[in-house]
Design brief:
globular, 16 strands
């Protein structure tokens, strides 16, 4: 089954949630009219990222489920068919009290809220200086398009995150991100490596524009299980589209010469030798 997917690179405005959501809806409608069945938006797409303290971040955060997920679900339902559409959006999630905000992403489809992921690895940057580390673990959701997992931005630097999703059966891993200047090696090297070593599709959606003294360079991309970039957006607000076959991600063993040259970076693992990976 071939699926058309899209990354929606945008320039969120700090603490202007209504404006940002309107932009998300407009870009989502543009994508689905072009046939996209899964659209991925950046990290903190509804709120912006460069908050200077926890109280202002909390003011821009929202409950999940909440008004944004309801609006996204209605948008998906408007265009519903037997294969979606689905949307993944980064947003700040309010915890149980004002001391807890999570950097989260939601997966929403015509059926409503499908899943929530909370960012596990937090750099000393932007709102991540104040949010609570995610506790959701690395989850995979079954959809009409295939199995979808999510990680956020800095999670990419930790190979265990995407490997966990691959071991749980993910076909597509969405990566909402806010890569600022200085992180160019992420799309140049790391996304491709994670796709290749796990034999999955990676949909990395960065933001663009300037915020709180940082320039975000875009270069959102969609990468196939061979580590090949199918599409890459430049530095401005834009859509990137690709057609993929999610089931190809389940073909982990690569047979170059039967019985002579075969590779399986998932099946050939030696977990009994990796104890240090899970030690404190």
């Amino acid at each position: 089954m071939t699926v058309k997917v899209a990354v929606a690179q945008m320039d969120p405005k700090l603490a202007q949630n209504e404006t940002n959501l309107a932009c998300i809806l407009a870009m989502f409608e543009e994508a689905v009219t072009q046939g996209a069945q899964l659209v991925v938006f950046p990290e903190c797409a509804t709120s912006g990222y460069g908050f200077g303290d926890l109280p202002t971040a909390y003011a821009a955060a929202e409950s999940i489920p909440g008004s944004t997920t309801e609006v996204l679900a209605r948008a998906c339902a408007k265009w519903a068919h037997d294969k979606g559409p689905y949307v993944i959006v980064g947003l700040l999630e309010r915890g149980a009290d004002a001391q807890h905000v999570y950097n989260s992403a939601v997966l929403v489809g015509p059926e409503g809220l499908v899943g929530v992921y909370r960012k596990a690895h937090l750099p000393l940057l932007g709102v991540d200086r104040f949010v609570t580390p995610g506790d959701s673990g690395f989850l995979v959701w079954e959809t009409a398009l295939g199995r979808v997992g999510i990680v956020i931005c800095y999670d990419l630097r930790f190979p265990e995150a995407m490997r966990s999703l691959a071991l749980s059966g993910a076909d597509i891993i969405a990566l909402p991100t806010n890569w600022p200047d200085g992180s160019q090696n992420a799309p140049q090297l790391v996304t491709r490596t994670r796709a290749l070593e796990n034999r999955v599709f990676v949909m990395a959606c960065n933001r663009c524009g300037e915020e709180s003294g940082f320039w975000f360079f875009g270069h959102s991309q969609i990468t196939d299980p061979g580590g090949n970039v199918l599409v890459e957006v430049e530095a401005d607000t834009a859509m990137g589209y690709a057609e993929i076959e999610p089931m190809k991600a389940r073909e982990k063993r690569i047979v170059l010469r039967p019985g002579e040259f075969e590779l399986d970076t998932v099946g050939d693992r030696r977990p009994e030798l990796y104890g240090k990976l899970v030690s404190a």
